[in-house]
Amino acid sequence: MNKQSGIHYLREHREAASSKPVPAEVSRIRETVVAGLGDLLQGAFDAVDDSLFELANNARSNNEQNRYFEAMREIRIKRKGVERHFQNAVAQLFATPPHAGKLHDDSQSQQAASADSLSLVGNDDLEEQVALNAMITKAKAHFQGPLLQLQTRFSQVYPEATEESPVNPMAPEHLCSAFTEAIQVLEIQIRERLILLKQFDRYVVSNLGMLLDEANRILIQAGVIPNFRYHGKTGQQHGGSSGSTSEQPDQETQTHSRTERVAADSSAVLEQIHQLLALQRANAGIPPRMSDPNVQIVGDRELLNLLSALPAATPPDPGQNLSEGEPVAIDLSAVVQQVLAQVDTREGKKPALDEMDEDLINLVSMLFEFILDDYNLSPPVQVLISRLQIPILKVVIKDKSFFSKSTHPARRLLNSLARAGIGWSKSDDKGRDKLYEKIHSIVQRILEEFDGDISLFETLNADFEQFLAKENRKASLVEQRTRESERGRIKSQKAQETVDRILREKLQRYRLPETVHSILTNGWSRVMFLAYLRDDVEHRWQETVKVVDDLIWCLHPHQEDAERDQWVRVVPGLLKTLRAGLEEVSYNASRLDEMMGSLKHELAEAFRNSQSGGEIQEEPAAAEPPEAEETTSDSSQSEDAAIAEYVAQIDAMEIGGWVEFRLVNGASFRCKLSAIIDEADSFVFVNRMGLKVIEKTRVELAHEMRRGRLTLLEQGALIDRALDAVVGSLRSTTA
């Protein structure tokens, strides 16, 4: 690791950072850590620069592009100062380390970040605080073992540290706080600030492991608790004196920490929901299940054995398509009660589940209630997923991590099915649609084959992802061709509209000779059209417009000698440019000489009229009545105000987002936003095969949304959205 970049600033402010003497063994750690963090931070800033440049390159408007370029400039200018501030702050942490609570005790921080307290914070500050909390929580969970060892060893080194108030200068919350303090000087908006925090997390916080290990190694060499023992139940740390080597206890501790971390991650969401449901039971006056002497608790394994004998859901009629009919939520509690009735109890006790298993069953029920009420799912796919209620219940009872692990095979499969089915419309032919057939076959296999082995979901998901990748490749190629074709067509349309408008504005002001009018509208307009399309490459568009202005000017009589001299200089080049342009577009080659001869005659007549004082006639402009103009303006302002909120939603749409259009006759179809062509204010939508289905302007889309004929579809992971809805519902009912 290159330490020069970090040590440079450390030495520059050594006196400020070391106003208080630090233990000798800590000084070496400080130099290593400050240098290492300096190198990691450089990588983070480089990544931020790349991210902002890419965002600017893909910006949909000049204002958005300028915003990202300004942020890049601001960060580049102040980058060195931020790096210096951060490294000095880190060095100061070793001089006066703040006291911290124990590693596991996050109750206070969770309380501080509760919904009630955060509701008082500004939206931007809230977003930043949420990002920081997530970063710190992830780091403390990921590096729990090394952090715990380091905290224990630092608390031995620093004389002011106690068991109740341990210290750890390298705790993630302290390092993140030092960074947020350092970036306060950056005058950037919240989106760019979140990008900065994301890259800090990716390049600095996520790589703390090597620095934590090095710090532990240095302290071990110094004889600070070389043999580390951690007893998780009591929360106490001891320096062992046994004959085992230091490496073995460290390895045991890391293995133990990983196991604890997985268990904690798996139970966090469940614990939150369990507490909310427990609060509901308490509010309803229901006593704890374990305290009831007349109840016999049925364990997980026994319950799973009972459920394994339960038949999976079947279609309404044997042989009928699984997606026929309406999605129906199964009363899972009633199903389980029927199963429990088969339990042979002792002494006449009533069989029952413990609260956690009962909560799991209720949670599965609420999950499917959300799924069956989720408008974002197309109805046929919704019906198919509803058939999986019993299998998912069996999965959850066997493996409770379904709700807390986003990588759980069954959860991934459900998310994949929902994500793939979002673009499926009622109008699609189910009998011949490969995607529908694939989803149907997956659901059918689960119903027929699932016997408790969760690896079936993993196999089906891998097969489905492979199928989707193949289908998406074909659709992407078609969509790319559609997008390019539409861009070309819309640009051509825009070019023609621009040419027609400019010529109309210029020619309607004057009564020009018929020959000149014909050359400009039937010939030179094609030259202008091609120049508009090629302007990014050849930059001739303004030249073609100037030819029109010069020709009209030359047809005016000119009395002044200077103007007549200019006329003599301009006309030869003008005629040459006109002929070259018309020849390039193959304008009526058989009559080109005749037309150019007529044009020369008109120009000569205009020059002679200069001597007689003749003047080209200007067409009077038609004046619109003031009342009509005022009425039009008022109507336009009223319309803009009515659709303003919908326009904001349209502007927030992203490429790849799915929507549903409803027609006047009640039919509907789903499509994906494929391209936004700013120069034509055009939004192009394609179906899931990549073929264009509709094109509308921003205002047209806002009107469609206002009339209730356009709905934006959510594309987040199905289970994540369902859990958010369930937790929100529980919080509102227990409030």
TrEMBL record:
Residue ranges, compositional bias (Basic and acidic residues):
253-263
A Pfam family that the UniProt record links to this protein: DUF1631
Highest rank taxon of the organism? Bacteria
Q: Where is this region: Disordered?
A: 1-23, 231-263, 609-638
State the protein's name.
DUF1631 domain-containing protein
Q: Which organism is it from?
A: Marinobacter koreensis
